[in-house]
């Protein structure tokens, strides 16, 4: 996003006067948290596979608790924001324009982009996981296919978001804004009770349409919160309620978060049964409410720093893991640096790769379209919030 919400690129589509700066700020802040999360994730001691794993001599890495503190809500809140953004975009654009925009901004980077660039990420991912070492008899063509498919990485989010966008168009044709208008009446004094009640359907959604092995594809949970973003949290009156009751939702989230960390620290938080537990869902839900309410109440502004972060958060999301995983493979795995220095270098590499590759790729013909979903007419504008 630029100084104004770029509806074509971001899907937010607000007019200048009614712009919601807090949505921008939620987006870039959560993406920054995702970068930090992936640093701890790369060297986790909880047995989560596909990464380098523990590089220290500690029996227990107490700082790994950061993963438990943020994992239940980081993607939930991004899907909620995407739902809000979709509603705001569709208020000024047709369904056809919405599908066309989302296809360019979401589908192209996670299909064409895999072949054009993300195979590099795939090669590193496969190398960390030992795919090439354990399959030495695989022909070159097979290794290329493995590298391309492994390059999906963090792009699973925009894969789901593209699918949800198509489903949303079908839902809109059926409900014709009747449900959306009714949801606007939920912002009254009963809002806290209703938010507590919503834990039940969100938990139920978390139990269904979860893919085995690749546990990030949680179609039920993420589609549920995406729709809640579209139907519920896109109403100003509901957001006003979140602002009003922020000091109720915040201690609930903090308490549930502490209980979750104490109950499950050391277990695989990213897979069943932990990620389907009532405590996981309740903590994630109330953390989302506190984040939305807090940002809307205290961070609904724009300055030079927030504008800079906003215009680059999409590129940071797309490219950060390449820097993190490269350090993991070539520095951490052979043990070339002290673990503390490795953590610092990995964090710096995540942000450097995110911002540096974003700067470079956004200026290269074809690649800016294939990798970042920037249409030709957008060249020269840093409207890189394609998946938001």
Can you walk through the features of this model?
It is built from 18 helices and no strands. The longest helix has 26 residues, at 65-90. It has helices spanning 7-10, 21-42, 65-90, 95-107, 112-128, 140-150, 156-175, 178-183, 191-197, 199-205, 219-231, 236-244, 246-264, 278-298, 304-310, 313-332, 339-361, 367-372. The chain has 388 residues and is mostly helical. Helices cover 65% and strands 0% of the residues. Helix 3 (65-90) crosses helix 14 and helix 16 crosses helix 17 (339-361).
Average pLDDT over all residues: 90
Between the first and last Cα atoms, what is the distance in angstroms? 10 Å
DSSP strand count: 0
What is the overall number of helices? Answer: 18
Tell me about the largest β-sheet: none
Helix-strand string: HHHHHHHHHHHHHHHHHH
CA-atom Rg in angstroms: 20 Å
The percent range for helix content is 55-70%
Structural class: mainly alpha
Secondary structure topology:
Blueprint: H1 7-10, H2 21-42, H3 65-90, H4 95-107, H5 112-128, H6 140-150, H7 156-175, H8 178-183, H9 191-197, H10 199-205, H11 219-231, H12 236-244, H13 246-264, H14 278-298, H15 304-310, H16 313-332, H17 339-361, H18 367-372
Helix pairs in contact: 2-3, 2-14, 2-15, 2-16, 2-17, 3-11, 3-14, 4-7, 5-6, 5-16, 10-11, 12-14, 13-14, 16-17
Pick out its properties.
18 helices; disordered N terminus; disordered C terminus
């Amino acid at each position: 996003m630029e100084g104004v919400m770029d509806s074509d690129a971001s899907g937010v589509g607000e007019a200048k006067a009614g712009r919601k700066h807090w949505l921008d700020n939620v987006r870039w802040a959560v993406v920054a948290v995702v970068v930090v999360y992936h640093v701890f994730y790369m060297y986790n001691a909880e047995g989560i596979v596909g990464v380098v794993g523990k590089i220290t001599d500690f029996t227990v890495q107490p700082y790994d608790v950061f993963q438990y503190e943020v994992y239940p809500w980081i993607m939930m809140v991004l899907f909620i924001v995407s739902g809000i953004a979709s509603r705001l975009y569709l208020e000024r654009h047709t369904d056809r324009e919405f599908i066309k925009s989302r296809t360019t901004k979401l589908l192209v980077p996670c299909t064409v982009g895999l072949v054009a660039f993300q195979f590099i990420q795939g090669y590193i991912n496969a190398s960390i996981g030992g795919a090439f070492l354990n399959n030495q008899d695989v022909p070159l063509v097979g290794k290329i296919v493995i590298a391309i498919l492994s390059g999906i990485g963090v792009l699973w989010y925009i894969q789901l978001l593209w699918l949800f966008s198509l489903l949303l168009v079908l839902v809109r044709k059926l409900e014709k804004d009747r449900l959306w208008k009714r949801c606007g009446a939920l912002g009254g004094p009963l809002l806290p009770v209703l938010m507590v009640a919503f834990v039940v359907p969100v938990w139920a959604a978390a139990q269904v349409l979860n893919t085995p092995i690749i546990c990030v594809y949680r179609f039920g949970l993420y589609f549920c919160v995406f729709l809640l973003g579209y139907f519920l949290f896109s109403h100003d009156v509901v957001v006003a309620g979140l602002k009003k009751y922020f000091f109720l939702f915040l201690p609930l989230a903090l308490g549930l978060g502490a209980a979750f960390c104490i109950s499950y620290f050391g277990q695989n938080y990213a897979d069943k049964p932990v990620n389907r537990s009532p405590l996981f869902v309740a903590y994630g839900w109330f953390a989302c409410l506190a984040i939305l309410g807090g940002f809307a109440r205290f961070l609904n502004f724009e300055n030079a720093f927030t504008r800079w972060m906003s215009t680059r958060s999409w590129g940071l999301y797309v490219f950060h893991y390449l820097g993190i995983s490269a350090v993991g493979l070539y520095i951490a795995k052979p043990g070339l640096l002290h673990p503390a220095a490795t953590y610092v270098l990995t964090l710096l590499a995540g942000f450097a790769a995110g911002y540096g590759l974003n700067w470079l790729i956004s200026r290269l013909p074809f690649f800016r379209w294939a990798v970042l979903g920037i249409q030709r007419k957008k060249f020269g504008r840093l409207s890189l919030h394609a998946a938001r």
